[in-house]
TrEMBL record:
The chain crosses the membrane at residues 29-49, 81-103, 115-136, 142-159, 166-186, 213-231, 264-285, 305-327, 348-367, 387-407, 475-500. It holds the Pfam family ABG_transport. It comes from the Bacteria. It comes from Cyclobacterium plantarum. InterPro entries: AbgT. The keyword Cell inner membrane does not apply. Keywords: Membrane, Transmembrane, Transmembrane helix. This is AbgT family transporter. The lineage of its organism: Bacteria, Pseudomonadati, Bacteroidota, Cytophagia, Cytophagales.
Length: 515
């Protein structure tokens, strides 16, 4: 074991214990089935209990819903197909992988990686990947299905451990979800809930949709620094010692020199990709563009552009992949194109099985209100402590991180607890802008360690491409250091940021009244 691991022997033993315990769990698909059964049982057990909490979204009492009644079971059976088919990550993953599969198996992506690695120093590979992962937030869930698997491919092609590349990009895409210097659809979405909650105290208050953009932008540096240090100094050395890469990896790109036909094909395919993206820009740029929402916004979830991100990813990789394949000679006819797409879908078979059980569990857990009740009880408990302002803000970070293990959606969680947190802190002279920033830190850091996050099983599949015995325990042990370090360092960064009085975003403030 190398020096870095010897210095962190306690951490290494702790992570190894988590990995072994986690990998003793059943297959993720069966685990989600067990969780579904547990949710049913707890819903029946807790349904008669009056917890005395009002749902801030409706103003009515919140109850645990018994899912074992005849009516609920009939509803479960009647909706089973629609719940599975409409599981949000399923269509996203499969459509994106159809396009990416063509680009990869034709040789277009490997050729691009060879060019990239030709001028990128290995020492800077990690921070560059994490930066790309953070920027990918702008394109909704594209980072999960595109950047994370490429992280593994790039590290493997560079002679580094591929699971370290997956871990680093997963940390950037999901653990650093609230770190981005480019506005995205999540900014106005969270602001809308924050403003609604703030109007409980001040009906006339208005918040800027980019009220956290400066903080989230500078947070990118924090996430990159933490992920860079952990990946290169702790995660990858431990992987090299404990999780060697499988030997029979025939379909992973190697660092061979590009042939003349491949160079020509890559240049032409890249030119087509650039022309396509340029055309998309000029299509979306005009205020009256059909890619914008009725208000003229382009980053809102209602904008056709944001709703078309995954189909656009499919086309952006599928078309250049086909062009490269025929020019380079890797494709001889249309059957080869379909074979690439079939091969990409073949690798998703296990994920589809997991997605079936995961979709049913998440739907049942949401319907039961167990997660919502936990979030409300935690928020009310924190409010009852009447702690100093700084301690309360830290408490919001930690509570959000915990609740995130049970309720994955950032918007659904904030819609539930913002009516408690925001007015409570306004009465302590803390602005809604700061409260929202604290929530965003906590909401990000624990994404990467909860199997309840819809894309978590997909990342397990990506890892199994290189180390077949990778399980939930392996991935949790990989990502736990990122969660712990980000939770501590990002929270401290928020407190320092607050102490220095740096602006959180546009028209933002630390004290109420904020505007």
């Amino acid at each position: 074991m190398n020096d870095n691991l010897q210095k962190n022997s306690l951490l290494d033993r702790f992570l190894t214990a988590i990995e072994k315990a986690g990998n003793k769990l059943p297959d993720p698909a069966i685990l989600f089935l067990f969780l579904l059964l547990l949710t049913w049982f707890l819903s029946a057990l807790l349904a008669p209990v009056d917890f005395g909490e009002l749902d801030p979204r409706t103003g009515e009492k919140l109850y645990i819903q018994n899912l074992l009644t005849g009516e609920k079971i009939a509803d479960f059976l009647s909706r089973m197909i629609s719940v599975f088919i409409n599981f949000p990550p399923l269509g996203v993953v499969l459509l994106a992988m159809l396009g990416v599969g063509v680009a990869e198996y034709s040789g277009f992506i490997p050729a691009g990686l060879k060019y990239l690695l030709g001028f990128t120093p290995k020492s800077l590979l990690t921070p560059i990947l994490v930066l790309v992962a953070i920027v990918s937030h702008t394109a909704a869930d594209a980072g999960y299905v595109l950047v994370i698997p490429l992280g593994g491919v790039i590290f493997y092609a560079a002679g580094r451990h591929p699971l370290a590349g997956i871990a680093a990009t997963f940390a950037g895409v999901s653990g650093g979800f609230s770190a981005n210097f480019i506005p995205s659809a999540i900014d106005p979405l969270l602001q809308s809930f924050t403003q609604s909650a703030a109007r409980i105290i001040d009906p006339d208050i208005n918040l800027n949709p980019l009220n956290n953009i400066y903080f989230t932008g500078l947070s990118s540096i924090v996430v990159i620094g933490v992920a860079w240090y952990l990946t290169d100094r702790i995660i990858e050395p431990r992987l090299n010692s404990n999780n060697p890469v499988d030997k029979d990896l025939n379909d992973i790109p190697k660092m061979d020199l590009l042939e003349k036909s491949e160079k020509i094909g890559f240049k032409i395919a890249s030119l087509v990709m650039i022309l396509g993206l340029t055309g998309l820009f000029f299509w979306a740029y005009p205020v009256g563009s059909s890619l914008r929402d009725p208000e003229g916004e382009i980053t809102s979830f209602a904008a056709p552009l944001m709703q078309s991100i995954v189909p656009l990813i499919f086309l952006v990789f599928w078309i250049p992949g086909i062009i490269f394949g025929f020019i380079s000679g890797s494709y001889k006819n249309s059957k080869d194109v379909i074979a690439s797409m079939s091969k990409a879908m073949g690798g998703m078979a296990h994920y589809i099985v997991m997605a079936f059980f995961c979709a049913l569990f998440i739907d049942a857990f949401t319907q039961s209100n167990i997660g919502s009740m936990t979030a409300l009880k935690g928020a009310v408990f924190l409010q009852s402590l009447q702690l100093p302002s700084q301690v309360t803000v830290v408490g919001i970070v930690f509570l959000s991180a915990f609740v995130n293990l049970l309720v994955g959606s950032a918007s659904a969680k904030w819609a539930l607890i913002s009516p408690i947190f925001v007015p409570m802190l306004m009465q302590l002279d803390i602005s809604p802008d700061l409260t929202q920033a604290a929530y965003r830190v906590g909401d990000s850091v624990s994404n990467i360690i909860t199997p309840l996050m819809p894309y978590f099983p997909l990342v397990v599949i990506f890892c199994q491409r290189y180390v077949k015995n990778t399980g939930i325990g392996t991935l949790v042990s990989l990502m736990l250091p990122y969660t712990l370090f980000l939770l501590l360092i990002w929270t401290v960064f928020l407190l320092i940021y607050w102490t220095l009085g740096l602006p959180l975003g546009l028209q933002s403030s630390y004290t109420y009244p904020a505007i």
